Structures are given as C-alpha cells and as structure tokens.
Amino acid sequence: MAEVLVYVDHVDGAVRKPTLELLTLARRVGEPVAVALGAGAEATAAVLAEHGAVKVLTADAPEFAEYLVVPKVDALQAAYEAVSPAAVLVPSSAEGKEIAARLAVRIGSGIITDAVDLEAGDEGPVATQSAFAASFTTKSRVSKGTPVITVKPNSAPVEAAPAAGAVEALAVTFGALATGTKVVSRTPRESTGRPELTEAAIVVSGGRGVNGAENFGIIEALADSLGAAVGASRAAVDAGWYPHTNQVGQTGKSVSPQLYIASGISGAIQHRAGMQTSKTIVAINKDAEAPIFDLVDYGVVGDLFAVVPQLTEEIQARKG
Amino acid sequence: MSLRIVVCVKYVPDATGDRHFADDLTVDRDDVDGLLSELDEYAVEQALQIAEDADDAEITVLTVGPEDAKDALRKALSMGADKAIHVEDDDLHGTDVMGTSLVLAKAIEKAGYDLVITGMASTDGTMGVLPAILAERLGVPQVTLLSEVKVEDGTVTGRRDGDSASEQLEASLPALVSVTDQSGEARYPSFKGIMAAKKKPVESWDLEELEIEADEVGLEGSWTAVDSAAQRPARTAGTIVKDEGEGGKQLAEFLAGQKFI
Ligand SMILES: Cc1cc2nc3c(=O)[nH]c(=O)nc-3n(C[C@H](O)[C@H](O)[C@H](O)COP(=O)(O)OP(=O)(O)OC[C@H]3O[C@@H](n4cnc5c(N)ncnc54)[C@H](O)[C@@H]3O)c2cc1C
Ligand SMILES: Nc1ncnc2c1ncn2[C@@H]1O[C@H](COP(=O)(O)O)[C@@H](O)[C@H]1O
C-alpha cells in the first residue's frame, strides 16, 4: 500500500490531538509515515504508533527553533524524497499551512488547505472544504503532483490502530534560505489550564455584550463548569477584554466543536466564518433580531448577566 | 537609496454580499460587488508607516485580477501609495494560488523591490498561504503574520503571535512580510488623497509582458480541481425562548437533553 506522510505537530514530544486525527484520515488513503521534528521528536513515536504510524522519521537540529518555517520545509522535503508518498498531510495551523505551501511549490504539487474531511478517490484523495464563511461545501482534488493537504482540527475521530511506529533518523541538509528569518526571542503563552480552543469539544464565547474585561469572569465560569475553552468575538478582542489568541472567526481561530455557546455576540459573517460548522449552537443575546439566532439550535433572548450565571449555577447543581 | 516597497492587494467579492460559485466552480465575481480586501488595507497601512519612517521610499501596489480590480488599486493609491501595477489577462480566469503566486513573483521581480508586503489572507479564498509561496518563489526571507513590523538599516523586525508563543523575528532585506489585522487600524483616504490618486500612474501588464505562458495559469494550469460545490443546507430553525427569569435553567435543561451536562 502507498505511504502517506503525516507532519507531526508536537510540543517537546507531546503530540497534539489534530495530528492523531490526521493519522485516522491518512489510513483511509495509505500507510501513515509520520515526520516529527525538533526537541522531543523521538518521544512522539509511541503515541503515533498506537494510532497507526508504521514509521516515524525524526530529526532534531537547533535550526528548527532558531529560524522560522523554512528549516522544517527542508526536513519535510527530505522525508518526501526518501519516501515518495502518495500524499502529504499537515495540520492546518498557521505554521503548518506555511510549511505545506512551501513544500508544495518546491515539489511542483498542488495544495489544498483547511480540509474538513478526506476520502480515497479514483484520482487520488478527495478533500472536503468549507467556503464563503461555511455557506458552501466543496469537494476538490490535487490534479498536479503529489497531493499536499492541510486538515483542520476536529475533522476526524482519533482512533486506536496499533502499528510498528519504527523510529528512523531523517538526514536533513539545510538550504541557503533556511536561516533567512531569525527567531530572536520566543515568549511562550501562559497556559490557562483550559482546553485548546481549536481542539475543544465545547467552546464558550463572549462578545461586545460582555461589556468589559472584568466581566469575562462569568464567561470563564460557564466554560469551566463545562470543561470548555473560552472564545471571544473580534469586538471583545479589539476592546482589549480578551487576548487575540482566543478570537473566533475569519481572522482568528476557526472552531468546530460539538457545542458552541455565544453570549453577547451578534453573529457577523466574519464571526460565523469561524464557528458555523459547530455541531450544536446556542446563543444568549438581548436582541431577538440578532443574526446569530438564525444559526442556533437553542437561543435565549435575554440579558447575559442574568442568564449566564443562572446557567452556570444550574450546571454545577446538576453535576452535583 | 530609495526603499522600494511592493504591496500585493487583492480585489475580492464583498463578504457581506451573497457570495457563490459560477457554473465553472470558480468564484463568481459578477453578481457581488467587489472591493479591496479589508485584510490588505492593513498591508497598505504598514507600507505607508514604513515609508514615513524611511528617508526615501516608494510604494507600488500590485494586483492580479479582472478589469474591476483597478478599484482596489485606486483605493490603495488614495490611502497614499505612489503608483500601481495591474496584471490583467483573459487567460488568468480561474487561476489558483500556485498560478497567482507565479504571476505576482514575476511582476514583483520586473517592478524591482526591497520589501514585499501582503495581507495575512484573502477574504474570499482565505487560504493564507500565498505569502509563504511568494517568499519561496522569490527566494527571500519570509517574515509572516506580523502584528508589529519595523524596517531599519536594511533589516526588518517584527512580532509574530503564534498559537503557543509570541516570537520576535528578524531578517535582512530584500524580504517578504505579511501583516495581520492586529498590526493597526488602516487609515481612511482623505479627500485630498482621493483627488491625488486620480493622477497617480497605473500600469497594465499582461502575461506576455511577464513571459508567462497561458497554460501555466488559469483553470487549465490550475494544480487543483474543484469537483463540486454545494450550498450547505440552512440550519434547521432552533428553539428560541425569551428569558422570563428562568432562561438559564431552560438552557441547562436543553443542554442536559443533548447530553452535554
Ligand atoms: C476583515 C474583517 C475580519 C474580521 N474578523 C473577525 C473575526 O475573526 N472574528 C469576529 O468575531 N469578528 C470579526 N470581524 C468583525 C465582525 O464584522 C463584527 O464586527 C464582530 O464579530 C462583532 O462582534 P460582536 O458580535 O461581539 O459585537 P456586536 O456586533 O456589537 O454585537 C454585540 C451583541 O451583544 C448583544 N448584547 C449587548 N449587551 C448584552 C447583554 N447584556 N446581554 C445579552 N446580549 C447583549 C447585542 O444585542 C449584540 O447583538 C471582522 C471584520 C472584518 C472587516
Ligand atoms: N490576485 C492577487 N493579487 C494581488 N495580491 C494577492 C492576490 N491574491 C492574494 N494576494 C495577496 O496574498 C495575501 C494572501 O492571500 P491568500 O493566500 O490567497 O489568502 C493577500 O492578503 C494579498 O496580499
């Protein structure tokens, strides 16, 4: 069976969930061969093997952390040349998309970004994508070269599928462009202890209606009662009430959780672009005409300062 | 020596309009009003600020697109860019990101540059990969997704706020920069700016001038194929209740029924 390269997103050896979802999709089109780079690369092998990786190609070098994107492209290209895969799958993070795109142009292949599903087809893998703020669903293929496809988080279930996962060292030589953009310093984001926004099963978001950074506590309390991630509309982010990393929408994160709860958010097209594919949508808004109500499975027309705390309290009571 | 800045801007269908696909599954550009992509206004703004800080700089705005794409160039000129290049050719219809990046790279090289600035993503295709591809094609450092950018003594520095960390980046010119919507509000064109823009030069180039063959671009030269596009079924109307004091409890009941609690 043809091999499929899967680019591994990990933090010091801890594999992030979207990579395991990629392995599920990769198994539909071939045998997954994982590529893990940087510090902790070898430590990823065990969990990748459990989820279907037949091989794990690893490389570590200071360049991966000290320079932006290109060293990783050089390494992925080395893996591509070593394996001659039927497809290359990469998680749709900001960096993942850039790595995939540069690889694609180098190897003369077409690229599909932000796929939400993938199936085998007669002419190669067929990717499902959402277009125009998720109002359309398209199916497309790469028609030239080896398909390079980036896949959004929450696009497939994580499935156990034990495989060999043999670790092999990948030989990488860096090209002249690899050291072009220096990472002078890096400030890690402080962990909130809440789930990652793009990976969370439940997302609780607040918008302009929350009316102040100090009031986001009630959104966080609701999120914590459900074990959810916290999101924000751009209006709330621009007002400085919540960090931009939590922004949901066209210029923030795109989320597709089982449940999305929007409080004090009107539902502008750019916000919908980032949450419209959520399975169940709930909104609390005092304006019965707010466009967000066109999307909801359940909506409460009311003041979020009354409804949200009551909801949180009720959830806590039910959970005992 | 003058700092030559090229800003890539895209003319896109209005996101608040009823966007859809044409019969050949390309983006329908006829039925919805177009405009300069809002995300590219941030690129123009940063170019203007960099030019203001430099002793001597010249900003060229560049677009690849249909006849109407001139509107996007005019807007950028009225914000304060110095001149514009419009690459237009009938054979460009249906070009994908690989083709567009090829055309942009050739045009940028022909125009001459020290710094290329792009937006973070287009508001219609929303791939956000063109900047990286363009840097690869031009063979210059990629300094992308910046929420802060500065150019001094032939060096570009900036801050990239990623998922897990915020990074301070540095590269030598020539380089390619993309900026996010966190980089700072774009200015509105002044009346004076709008009047001045009418006299600024707009050059038109076609594929022949860029020595690109018709089959390298367009639907034919596309490296991807869209097989189908279907409108998502409208979400079925949900239950909407008015809070009469029990709204939170009713919502909890719904969530429990759906097994979320
Ligand atoms: C290029 C571009 C990109 C963009 N990208 C994004 C993006 O990524 N994400 C994003 O979110 N937006 C984005 N936007 C902005 C978007 O157009 C909207 O402006 C934004 O989403 C509005 O945020 P909001 O719903 O919080 O605020 P508003 O539209 O002001 O809505 C606030 C809502 O809160 C309700 N409300 C007020 N008080 C209460 C209360 N006490 N109780 C209950 N309800 C209350 C009001 O009825 C109202 O419906 C983008 C815009 C552009 C042009
Ligand atoms: N046709 C085009 N003409 C000029 N610039 C473009 C064009 N398409 C994309 N760009 C630039 O590339 C950026 C990213 O686009 P994309 O990768 O298509 O989301 C945009 O913000 C623009 O700066």
What can you tell me about this protein's structure?
The complex is a heterodimer of chains A (320) and B (261). Chain A is of the alpha/beta class and 320 residues long. Chain A has helices spanning 17-29, 45-50, 63-66, 70-83, 94-107, 216-226, 234-238, 269-272, 304-319; strands spanning 3-7, 10-11, 14-15, 31-37, 55-59, 87-91, 111-115, 117-119, 126-131, 136-142, 148-151, 166-169, 182-188, 202-206, 229-232, 259-263, 280-285, 298-301. Chain A contains 9 helices and 18 strands. In chain A, α4 crosses α5 and α6 runs parallel beside α9 (304-319). The longest helix of chain A is centred in the C-terminal third of the chain and has 16 residues, at 304-319. Chain B has a 9-stranded mixed beta sheet with strand order 9-8-7-10-6-1-4-5-11, sandwiched between helices. In chain B, strands 2-3 form a two-stranded antiparallel ribbon. The radius of gyration of chain B is 22 Å and the shape is globular. Chain B is built from 6 helices and 13 strands. Chains A and B meet through α5, β7, β9, β10 and β13 of A and α3, α4, β7, β8 and β9 of B. β10 of chain A pairs antiparallel with β12 (224-231) of chain B, so a sheet runs across the interface. Bound molecules: flavin-adenine dinucleotide and adenosine monophosphate.
Strand content of chain A: 25-35%
Strand content of chain B: 25-35%
Distance from first to last alpha carbon of chain A: 51 Å
Summarize the amount of helix of chain B as a percent range: 25-40%
Question: How are the strands ordered across the major sheet of chain B?
Answer: 9-8-7-10-6-1-4-5-11
Bound ligands, each once: flavin-adenine dinucleotide, adenosine monophosphate
DSSP summary: helix tally of chain B: 6
Q: What is the end-to-end distance of chain B?
A: 66 Å
Please report the total strand number of chain A as a whole number.
18
Approximately how much helix is present in the residues of chain A? 25-40%
Q: Structural class of the helices, strands and pairings of chain A?
A: alpha/beta
Radius of gyration of chain B: 22 Å
pLDDT average of chain A, as an integer? 96
